Amino acid sequence: MLRIAICDDDVQELTRLTNLVKKYQAEKKASMKYVTFSNAIELLETMRNDIYDVLLLDILMPGLNGMEAAHEIREFDSGVKIIFLTSSPEFAIESYAVDAFYYLLKPCAPEKLFPVLDSFFLDSQKKEAALHIKAASGMVRIPFSKLEFLEVINKKLYFHITDGSVKEFYGSLSDFEPELLSREEFIKVHRSCIVNMGYIQELNTSELITCAQQSAPISRLLYGKVREAYMQYLFVEKGAF
Question: With 50 as the cut, is the pLDDT of residue 193 above it?
Fold first, then answer.
């Protein structure tokens, strides 16, 4: 299901945009859910707890304008697709700074908006599965394919990403253990660590090294089980080719 947030301070324009989205949903029989906001502050507060796939955002609003809101949103949500809506083209260049997906001039017509929504539905069908983490700054999305391993140290979770970066959050390993271990590529190698076997480069009785040259601990009691599971995983992966 595609989740859309629509934000515009002009009541008539907000109604018009909502009707366009309803029209698209009816014509395409699209699986989607949408919510509306009349100001950027309310939108920001909601987005710190809820995740949307698409944001239809007016730029010229009193108080916090759409461009300022987009900069704040990008601090905690890099995944939402932002479509700027405005009566003026002067912000087009600045929109690239917040990785805007599209820029539409008002009044927005079906022949302009509908093809953009079509592209979102195609993209959502191919969208990677991911962990969704509720953090103080807002909702954070970490694709399973980008997670090398997760470990907990002193009640703090460390998500080690394939690019070598580490995302830190307070929490318990048990918060994510069921979801990770339900996937065949993840295995618990220590009471404090879960690893993506697809990124294991070296394996010994005390630790493993990932492709990003990060190290993770291995329990000596679990080493035999981990090694067997890893070899089976490699065999299955090779067989898939």
Answer: yes
Q: Give SS3 for 54.
A: strand
Higher pLDDT pick, 9 / 102: 9
Assess contact for 223 and 238: CB atoms under 8 A: no
**Domains, the chain, with CATH or none:** 2-125 (3.40.50.2300), 133-240 (2.40.50.1020)
Q: Per the structure block, which two tokens stand in for 101?
A: 């997906």
Which residue has tokens 């479509």? 83
How confident is the model over 122-143, as a mean pLDDT? 76
Model confidence over 85-95: pLDDT tens digits?
A: 887 666 555 55
pTM: 0.54
Q: Are 110 and 24 in contact (CB under 8 A)?
A: yes
Q: Which residues contact 87 (CB under 8 A, 6 or more apart)?
A: 60, 105, 106
Residue by residue, DSSP assigns 169-220 as EE--GGGTHHHHHTSTTEEEEETTEEEEGGGEEEE-SSEEEETTS-EEE--T
Amino acid at 137: S
